[in-house]
Specification:
With 423 residues, the protein is of the alpha+beta class. The chain has a domain of 149 residues: Heat Shock Protein 90 (2-Layer Sandwich), CATH 3.30.565. 53% of the residues lie in helices and 19% in strands. The protein is built from nine helices and twelve strands. The protein is elongated and about 130 Å long. The two termini are 23 Å apart. About 7% of the residues have low confidence.
């Protein structure tokens, strides 16, 4: 039980960190890409503003003309006019590679500028420019190329900037953040495991003390109960039958049953059970037979549907006890006349189900139905030999066999389902 609690704590912590990391990385990545896109777009707008189709150099190997006395626009960018502006003086703008394709109003190509380095062929630039015009969007990307379409005086300009370096840097940044995030998750996972153990340890110790108390109290109470029974028998021989002695015997018998159930619960929860291969189908059918007689006496019927050849590994006594608890619970608390017993194979599990008509059970009752001493019919407490421990014993037996048990309320029926791993 506490192992699952530890797992839940670790899972919650790690999942929270993963969610936070994903949100943080996504925010950083998207904001960085948006900032880079805005910067590229601003540089393209500057480039477009300085572009002059009549000042395109065709010989890129010629020595650049000397700079003018005033702020000269970079000779390394062909086709740019002299002008002023903060962007053109930025190192990023000076180091960027620009391309452009200019179209006349009739759609003819006026000029193609493939940059100083000639990294992109004219055919590639024409393909990108054509795609940009077909998209009918003012800005966009084509691979690592960022473009902007602008209508100039008498022509249309598709200006492009190579964003390969920026994209690579952004990709590298993202990979580094992922590596750092993965390392942080690994470290926090180790820390959360330690913290989970520290948090759960007091609960485990308290649970151990409670179980030890139940076991010790059960064994200690066996002696006075036996003494009371013996004294009652001696008094009955001396004075004969008596209403008071009958009452003593009745209450002593109830106390004896309670002690037996407490010891059974303690054994199911604490002791390591000896396991053997069992024919669970025969076990269920054999345990159901005596309950059919009890059901007949109460005017009820047990309808069994059991699949043959289902084998499990476990304790025969405890599994008999599990079946007995569920059938006894159905006979004692069911409101109808029919009890449904089913055993079938579901993948890797033997699925045992007991259903009976019942008073409505809400979610709160279903959540506590396997708790010790819990009873849904509060008004009937103390009237019979049921103390709210039977289903606790069933839950302990199922857990001890590596299985699970659940309670549901469907279509007016209380349904108890047990899953035990098959052999």
């Amino acid at each position: 039980m506490f192992g699952k609690t530890k797992v839940k704590i670790v899972f919650t912590v790690v999942l929270s960190l993963l969610a936070l990391m994903i949100v943080t990385l996504s925010t950083i990545y998207l904001s960085s890409r948006a900032a880079m896109r805005n910067e590229n777009d601003e540089m393209l707008m500057t480039y477009i503003g300085l572009y002059d189709p009549e000042n395109q150099r065709e010989d890129f190997d010629k020595e650049d003309p000397p700079p003018l006395e005033h702020d000269n626009l970079f000779s390394e960018f062909p086709g740019m006019m002299q002008g002023k502006g903060h962007m053109r003086n930025e190192p990023g703008f000076r180091l960027s590679t620009f391309y452009s394709v200019a179209y006349s109003e009739s759609g003819e190509i006026i000029s193609i500028n493939n940059g100083n380095n000639g990294l992109q062929s004219e055919n590639t630039l024409l393909e990108i420019a054509s795609a940009a015009l077909e998209r009918k969007k003012e800005t966009g990307t084509y691979g690592s190329i960022y473009y902007r379409v602008a209508d100039k005086d008498g022509y249309t300009l598709v200006a492009m900037i190579d964003g390969t370096i920026g994209d690579k840097n952004l990709e590298l940044l993202f990979k580094q953040m992922l590596m750092i995030g993965a390392a942080a998750v690994a470290v926090l996972l180790a820390i959360s495991v330690i913290v989970a153990r520290i948090i759960v340890r007091p609960l485990e110790e308290n649970d151990i003390r409670q179980k030890r108390f139940v076991s010790d109290a059960g064994h200690e109470l066996k002696t006075p109960v036996a003494v009371i029974s013996a004294n009652s028998e001696l008094l009955r021989r001396e004075i004969g039958d008596s209403e008071w002695l009958d009452n003593i015997d009745y209450e002593n018998s109830r106390m004896s049953d309670l002690i037996k159930q407490l010891l059974m619960l303690s054994k199911a929860e604490n002791e390591k059970i000896p396991k053997e291969t069992l024919d669970f189908s025969k076990l269920v059918n054999g345990e159901a037979l005596p309950f059919e007689s009890l059901a007949f006496e109460k005017g009820k019927t047990i309808i069994s549907e059991t699949e043959n050849g289902i084998f499990v590994e476990g304790s025969q006594n405890q599994l008999r006890q599990l079946i007995s608890v569920l059938l006894d619970n159905a006979l004692s608390h069911g409101t109808g006349t029919v009890i449904y017993l089913s055993l079938k194979s579901e993948r890797h599990f033997a699925c045992l189900s007991v259903a009976n008509e019942s008073d409505p059970l809400d979610d709160e009752q279903l959540a506590h139905i396997f708790d010790r001493f819990y009873r849904t019919d509060e008004a009937r407490k103390g009237e019979d030999s049921h103390y709210g421990l039977g289903l606790s014993i069933a839950h302990a037996v199922a857990s001890a066999h590596g299985g699970q048990i659940r309670a549901d309320y469907k279509n007016g029926k209380a349904v108890f389902t047990v899953l035990i791993p098959k052999k």
